[in-house]
Amino acid sequence: MLNYTAGSGENTGWIVRETAFDSNLQGKCEAIMSLGNGYLGLRSATEEPYLNQVRNLFVAGTFNKFDEEEVTELPNAADLTEIKLVLDGESFSLEQGKVVDYRRDLNLRTGELEREVLWDSPKGKRYHLLFKRFVSMENLHLIGMKVEVTPKSGQANVRIISGINAQMTNTGSQHFHEGEKRIFDKKYIQLLQKTIESKIDFVINTVHNYSVNDQEVEMDPKMAIDRRKVFTEAKIELGKEETLTFEKISNVHTSRDKEYKEGYDLSVMRETTLSELEEEATKGYQTLLGESAREWDKKWQHMAIDIKSKDSFDQLAIRFAHYHLMVMTPAHDNRFGIAAKGLSGEGYKGHSFWDTEVFILPFFIYTYPEVARGLLEYRYNTIDGARRKAIQNGYEGAMYPWESAYTGDEVTPVWGSVDIVTGEATKIWSGFIEQHITSDIAYAVWQYYEITGDEDFMNQYGYEMLFDTATFWTSRLEWNDEHQRYHINQVIGPDEYKEHVDNNAFTNYMAYQNIELAIKYSEKLATENPELFNQLNNVLNLESAKEKWVDKIDKIYLPQPREEDLVIPQDDTYLDKKIIDLTKYKNQKHVGSIFEDYNLEQVNDMQISKQADIMILFYLLENKFSTEVKRANWNYYEPKTLHDSSLSLSSHCVLAADMDDLSLSYELFQRAAQIDLGPNMKSSDHGMHTASIGGLWQGVVCGFGGVRMLGGELRIDSKLPENWDELSFPIYWKGDRLKVRVTKTDISVTNETKKQPQTTFTVHGKPYVLEDTLTININ
Prior knowledge:
Blueprint lengths: L1 E2 L11 E4 L8 H6 L2 E2 L3 E3 L14 E3 L23 E5 L2 E2 L6 E10 L4 E9 L5 E10 L6 E10 L4 E10 L15 E4 L3 E7 L6 E12 L2 E3 L4 E5 L2 E10 L5 E11 L11 H16 L3 H19 L2 E4 L3 H16 L26 H13 L1 H13 L1 H10 L22 E4 L6 E3 L2 H4 L3 H16 L2 H22 L1 E3 L4 E3 L17 H24 L1 H11 L1 H12 L29 H4 L13 H5 L8 H8 L6 H11 L10 H11 L3 H16 L12 H15 L2 E4 L2 E4 L7 E10 L2 E8 L2 E6 L7 E5 L2 E5 L2 E5 L2
Parallel strand pairs: 26-30
Antiparallel strand pairs: 1-2, 2-8, 3-4, 4-5, 6-7, 6-12, 8-9, 9-10, 10-11, 11-19, 12-18, 13-14, 14-15, 15-16, 15-19, 17-18, 20-27, 21-22, 23-24, 25-26, 27-28, 28-29, 29-32, 30-31
Helix pairs in contact: 4-20, 5-6, 5-9, 5-20, 6-9, 6-10, 9-10, 9-11, 10-11, 10-13, 11-12, 11-13, 11-16, 16-18, 18-19, 18-20, 19-20
């Protein structure tokens, strides 16, 4: 049903195509073909309605709680995409009549979705239909749609029913009050919505324009207002081969938009947004699309990765990753984070996880450092929520929530899917004890600073974040009198199939590094910027905090490789748990199949990993472990890893490349790409796997490209898989844009901006100094 070689000419390698429609399998293309610009996210449900489809329109940052018993989530705003076509008295539906020809294309290059259908109605009349839409990258509030209808068998009476439908929910939860609705001049439609708890106003406008054979036609449509719905119905007679073109231009604004931070008046917003729509609509669909496509072109020129591979899927896959990284990221506003499903579905309620810092942020640090800064500023803007969580749990400092929304308070749901043994809902412990996210955020601050050299960010935000997260960890440590050391007990590590464990290796090592960084930078600040140090000392009591950091850091237990096999215990009990044959589950058709046979409590007592967090530790802190230790742990943990997390494959892809197993690394890269692009037509029903999308970029640039920041230094240990002849990509380092080109024999690095007189880096252990262009033989 999916074709990845459909593009031709300038669109070669840019088209994701659906070749047939199945109403039982709509979620896949709704998600992977979703449109957006970081402000708006529009799930790509078809214009005509079907059972099982999910219509979603999200606006970044507009969180709301349905009631006190639920957690906050991004509300599903009123739908603008449903358009009902009645052709000679028969409703257009792909489930009726005969579909003679069908295709639906997402053009990654332009951000346009196009669907073409040749359809025979139940009465035997043939129609050619073309549907187009885009979410503007130039005007973040704008959505454009276009429908063309051409009767092929003879004359036809066409009815078009379209408007704004606010009868939408988030899987049953309604987040809006009944809003005011109005139609101006039988043409412009406006609907207001207000969220129930957060009281955010939405103003949604739309306008319809009609033409026949490119000649504008004035309509006198029937108007209708219903409960949470306002629409018009237009009728027109078409001759054989005449083409009706219907354009629908819409915009969406909310009272949480950045321009209303300092002052807001609903009546003014209503008037100005409607005027904006009137002006934009006069340009027409094609002009508006062109404006958006030009913005896309700028982004493609800036971030392009070129892969010369024997399999064209590889080039498409990295472009697909780039596309979704752009449409899901609220680059326009540092008050918002990236949702775990982006803006493509209701999964995880629009909340931000560690996915951002560990899997997505590296792309932005190396490609759009200004966006990376904004994403880290989001964490600073929510630090008060992290401090509230620490206090609520009896700790000090900043304890970041596992799931974060607008305020930074913990918003992880408490209950999840069914326990197959008890029949009860499974308790979700992540919001209580999956605490490594605090050090993940500190790690990201350090990574951003070392790669960019952005001292202003550190002065305003970064140092405070590093210091207060370290204070959390020193208050979280538990003294073990028997071993005379500090432990971190009762946690969940990245491997979420192991709950309530003591001394999860990933958590302990990352907490240690968090405190280590705080000590290092507090000393640096006291020497180089005593004024700022004193300011932070007054707020955070730094001198006292540092005494605790220094006193405790060397007493933190860091699990070490066993003498007999160099395996590092994932936690205190993992290596003593039962081992079972995982062949059935390693070959599973869908993730989580083990829970058809066992419940989470049973899986917790087996050597089974959702994802091996030891592996992620080797990636993030790679220079702390030898190659022999990495390989020994890979050989032990990988067979026990089900990759039931979409984060897992891309991490393993990078590590396999590090260990020179390029065949396995390449296989893992393609498997990671196929989480969303693969043949499983149910894999993306709840939305995109955004961390995996960020991981794909890391697989290419950090895995095969070999790019890494180690101790503040740049390393480029490139190595290409057999299928690739050449790889080129851009990275930013200390403010300079570097272009890296890799072949089987050479690495060429060019400084395109030359803000720094020279750049130092290593390639396979040898140091180099770059001034302009440098080509290095790697044979």
